[in-house]
Design brief:
The chain is of the alpha/beta class. It has helices spanning about 10-20, 35-40, 65-75, 90-100, 145-155, 165-190, 195-200, 205-210, 215-225, 230-255, 260-280; strands at about 5, 25-30, 45-50, 55-60, 80-85, 105-110, 135, 160-165.
């Protein structure tokens, strides 16, 4: 790959551009917010503006609900020979692209599994995807050349290409990324009206659990709405466990009699043990596991 264009210069788009520039790829930066594109260019991510001739590959780095419109627009403008995206939901954008009349032979869905709770080009890093999975979701229409270019893109960014079906991807990130963000936000919201004296006791544990809640509201509204059904399925199972724990803790709080506390204590211990065991299954970064755990934190720009 000699040339590329990045449409949407938020965190993910700019990080991709920085990685490509570091590998000698001529990269163009396009954004409906000129200031964002200028900042990305000043960071060394590429050349601001549209190329004179079609580039090898264009990356549509915008939120999921805007992928199809941006893809359609830039295919009509002949921006690139082939196209991919970087959104964290794959099934809905693919359907939207088909309805919009996009050329699906020259498009393959993509999702680099890296991100941060910060957004915007200033949060970008050229090593954001190093050692991380980069999911590709080719459709039955996608030509082999397009998949090969998207695979090369992932490798140039230091990531490991992983091919998945659209629905399989969306179910996976609902469990590993989207529901965790929502749960983090729900817990963080409990702090809004908490007494300041109580918050003064907060330690690293609360910081860790609520870190994801600091993400872009606009972006995460888009992501969760686009992958709503899959997230709802995971959240329903989580809610069942939460209700179970409420009952267990109520029972423990209601009595000090050992014979009445035995069963709820066993249930509580089992839940905590399952948590330890579940967390141990998360692949360590760079060890070769699929490791899907972070949504694309693209800033809501570029459409």
């Amino acid at each position: 790959m000699r040339s590329a264009a990045v449409v949407g210069t938020g965190l993910i788009g700019t990080s991709i551009a920085l990685a490509l520039r570091g590998r000698g790829v001529t990269t163009y930066l396009i954004d409906t917010d000129p200031e964002a594109a200028r900042i990305a260019a000043d960071l060394g991510a590429g050349v601001e503006g549209t190329p004179r001739e079609p580039v090898d590959l264009a990356v549509i780095a915008v939120p999921p609900q805007h992928v199809a419109a941006a893809l359609r627009e830039h295919q009509l403008l002949d921006l690139a020979h082939d196209f991919t995206d970087a959104a964290s939901v794959k099934e809905s954008p693919q359907r939207d692209a088909a309805r919009a009349g996009c050329d699906l032979t020259r498009f393959v869905g993509g999702h680099p599994m890296g991100g941060r709770e910060q957004s915007g080009p200033l949060a970008a890093r050229d090593d954001l995807f190093r050692g991380r999975p980069w999911v590709l979701t080719p459709s039955s229409h996608t030509r082999a050349r397009t998949v090969a270019l998207a695979r090369e893109l992932a490798e140039l960014c230091g990531a490991r290409p992983v091919v998945m079906a659209h629905a399989e991807h969306d179910a996976a990130v609902a469990l590993t990324s989207h529901t965790p963000h929502l749960v983090s936000s729900l817990l963080a919201a409990r702090l809004l009206h908490a007494d300041a004296s109580r918050l003064g006791l907060a330690g690293q544990g609360l910081q860790d659990v609520t870190r994801l809640a600091a993400g872009s509201v606009d972006l995460w509204t888009d992501i969760l709405a686009t992958n709503a059904a899959a997230v709802a399925d995971v959240l329903a199972e989580f809610a069942h466990d939460v209700h179970l724990m409420v009952d267990v803790l109520r029972a423990l709080g209601a009595t000090q009699e050992p014979e009445q506390r035995s069963a709820p204590l066993d249930t509580l211990s089992a839940v905590l043990l399952h948590g330890v065991q579940g967390r141990a299954r998360i692949p360590v970064r760079g060890t070769g596991g699929l490791g899907i755990g972070t949504a694309c934190a693209t800033a809501p720009r570029g459409v």
